[in-house]
């Protein structure tokens, strides 16, 4: 195959003009399939403190937790919970052993222990029901998943129709994921049965085995990771958004009927009052004239490069400054779906960049805001509970010179050199740093207090609870920890070192002097007011007003009255007069 | 006087050594003036040229000396004539003296404003500083520089120096070193800032074209604890300069109306869902928030009473190792924490913590509520910014970090788990290493290329250029991206000088387009020269929506095999028919016949399989009717020789063709072709 050089160069920086953007699935339909066979109710023995905990409980707890999060972050998703191996049956297809739980009563889910399981194995039935539940919604707008909790690794021998089912599920765009729970008497062997079911993910079998959750925390963690489907932001290599800022969405309701309202936007010509369609022209006032642009021209201006990443070069890592940041980063992972061999190039560059400690600078030609990005290679890191950081590259959006400001340069003065600290001061500061060290800080250990409160309030209102729930603000500093003697001492040492011994007294003195000057000013004001009152007493204001003689007075004279009665002094003479009149009640 | 009003004097070197850079100087100056016309129409601008043949400035007239300096435009409010002047700068003939130019510029500003307007006067020097400065009449050059910076400080004048160093080697190194040290002296003593630019793009980015006066986000205490507080001011460090907002234009007003505003008012109305004609007034509306599937109405009073209301404060949570905070968690625009100006204690405190942080490689975590009544809390990381200048205090940068709810964690397979065909070989790895080394944007001996602080936003530059063009010629087209801006969007050709490394890299990796995916949206001509690669991934088949040129038969079969909808069979057959017709129509001397035959056979196979005989039979008859008399006859001979017949009743029950008719169809071709 002959490749023209330009094309290849672009390809390795994953930039192809015609790369199509995959329409992202913006809604998710999830069915949680929970095994309710007797096995799931066997409490596990090895953990004394978790006595009575059964796999079933763990699974239900996890689902509850994830439902709560889902309400916050993906409120448009639809969820169904379905138990299998149950005695009762409740499903549209009327298949035995499957119980579809009504999600609206999710509050009662934690009390759901009334599913004494039957011996009969109904996994196929359950999958069938799950698939039926997922039948709604078109492939284009929704991604569909089945998350399965079980500790049974070999439910039955393989039936002939089983692979058909798998294929059907794939064709319907349903992905099946398994959250295996270790059996009390041994490891969960994925290969026995679920390999076929999971089909496509055979590469990742090792993941499943290694992550077979034993404890609740691990499980939650696992579920959290699986909760969000990887959303392709753009198919360049294969990207997925890694950070997202959340906010509660507002819908306007009719206060009478509480029904949603439909907002309507209309464009009205300011000159003629005529109703317009969405106008196709924009203008910008320049040199006192209106310069017209068509919408096409504006998008043409922004089209600098094809919608792709174009590699420009590499820089050592320390050239990426802390202030080179504008927006949340994006994660890049290679894909061979479009161009064979791109994963290999990606891996090669990834390794080189890690080894040489460089980051790549590339131009990202998106249509909204084309900009320079830094690509930082991320090594895979993992701990006992699984992957912490996946391998790939982080795309960081760099500012342009117009976006960077220099506030620190506004206060240049010669004293700056004098305020350089001495070695002793720095030493004290280092001691302080060591004292107040958060060892195991992880970036997302805090939940957003505003958001937590928002949803707890909503929950309270929705469920008609009288009492507003208290939400703990995790972001407040740890007062108790700060009060530990070691820290207090380090703080005091540092304070004395940089502020001097008598800082508090000085501060108090300066505040006192400020207050003194403030009280001086207020005294002065009072004196003026007193003088005005005296002056004002010399006039018979009511008489003057009645005879219309106020206008014969000077502004200074009028102001005596106003000051004496604590009225505003601003405005022209007429305004003053009318103010006096209205004060007199005329 | 307006608070933000700025008085700027441009000092432009137009001597012979600058001639190459002058087109870019013209561009940057006109953009500067343009932005002033839009955002700062009150600002004053003066222009001084040096390196000119003639001499025309007040100082020369009054005291003599100061040759080859022309005051092109005295300080006056910015106007559009200036734009024309700056677009056509004359080319000078003499090597200019930048120190003299600075003096002339200062003289202009001081004469105009005297002691008022402190801190709002700016000189902007653009020169290559390659020529020797004159010996002053008395004292040394250093003394002169000292006097200049004293003067600048006492009058509150700032100096931006932009030194172009594009062509290297030509200039006398000794002069360069001397000039650099002179300028360095000014910047150390006074309010000057020097930037060296090595490329036209950097020149465009080096000059701050829009003057934005900084506004504090927060002023108050940084609370290390309830006892220990540091007075700080918080500013934005980066803030995205957005594309200018354009208003909607209404063309409804009659052309004769000269006072028409042409503006468009946007009216929002909320209609009831039950009765779309009824408009719901604002006071009847109530906010509804989503809680799962339900929408919960909450009145604003109710909300106000219970919502989260943190106290305004900036509190320390603790310190942690810098490695605990990964760079990609930085979420938003960056803030700068500066010790309260004039407060020496705060300066020392900030500085000692910043330096301690740098030494121990730690960062601080803060919880910030910038304003009282703000409904949210920000948690972020404070990193040190050790000042490089004597006159600048140390400060911090603050980056917002995500909350637990904001982070999406994903698992991706580890690279080592990929099949070995995806792993680079040692040779390939070496090639990648070489590429990374070669495309070094911080080449030794040259400055950093594409430094964000010096990189202009190409979109904005392009917009302002187009705006100017349109204001003079309303029907002009969008101009192509300026060559000096191309350095931002395209790889620097100088860097990839070493072609062998590139070729090596290219040769090492084989890239193939995946035809299944590609064919769906790619334009035909681009795809046609690509090799056929059979995809082994069955998942791809499910997504084929169109028949492409590279592998039509596979595409077609994939479409027919799709199980997520019955319409795919019909669609597949239809697209295949169109494809075959296209092939035949565009065929030149029968070059496409073999391909068309293959396609036809595939179509027939599929029609038998899917029990759609009519589709095929009709199509075959149709193309036969259409082309039997043309030079496409040869095609039907081939059809006959390949025994492609109509689908008979025995093959598919729905067929209308009997066995004999089906067999005889090709025979008819023979007949008609004779």
From TrEMBL, chain A:
Domain of life: Eukaryota
Gene Ontology annotations of biological process type: DNA recombination; double-strand break repair via nonhomologous end joining; telomere maintenance
SUPFAM superfamilies for this protein: SAP domain (SSF68906), SPOC domain-like (SSF100939), vWA-like (SSF53300)
Subcellular location: Nucleus
Primary location class: nucleus
Family annotation (CDD domains): KU70 (cd00788), vWA_ku (cd01458)
PANTHER family: KU AUTOANTIGEN DNA HELICASE, X-RAY REPAIR CROSS-COMPLEMENTING PROTEIN 6
Homology family: Belongs to the ku70 family.
Protein name in UniProt: ATP-dependent DNA helicase 2 subunit KU70
Automatic annotation (TrEMBL), chain B:
Domain (Ku): residue spans on this chain: 277-418
Record CDD domains: KU80 (cd00873)
Highest taxon of the lineage: Eukaryota
GO biological process assignments: DNA recombination; double-strand break repair via nonhomologous end joining; telomere maintenance
Basic and acidic residues: bias regions: 537-546
Disordered: annotated segments: 473-498, 515-546, 650-674
Major location category of this protein: nucleus
GO molecular function: ATP binding; damaged DNA binding; DNA helicase activity; double-stranded DNA binding; hydrolase activity; telomeric DNA binding
Keyword field: ATP-binding, DNA damage, DNA recombination, DNA repair, DNA-binding, Helicase, Hydrolase, Nucleotide-binding, Nucleus
One Pfam family of this chain: Ku_N
Broad enzyme group: hydrolase
Enzyme Commission code(s) on record: 3.6.4.12
A Gene Ontology term for the protein's cellular component: Ku70:Ku80 complex
Record's keyword annotation contains DNA damage: yes
InterPro entries named in the record: DNA_bd_Ku70/Ku80, Ku80, Ku_C, Ku_C_sf, Ku_N, Ku_PK_bind, SPOC-like_C_dom_sf, vWFA_dom_sf
Subcellular location: Nucleus
SMART domains: Ku78 (SM00559)
Catalytic activity: ATP + H2O = ADP + phosphate + H(+)
Keyword Hydrolase on entry: yes
Family classification: Belongs to the ku80 family.
Cross-referenced PANTHER family: KU AUTOANTIGEN DNA HELICASE (PTHR12604), X-RAY REPAIR CROSS-COMPLEMENTING PROTEIN 5 (PTHR12604:SF4)
Function: Single-stranded DNA-dependent ATP-dependent helicase.
Protein name, entry field: ATP-dependent DNA helicase 2 subunit KU80
Species this protein is from: Spirodela intermedia
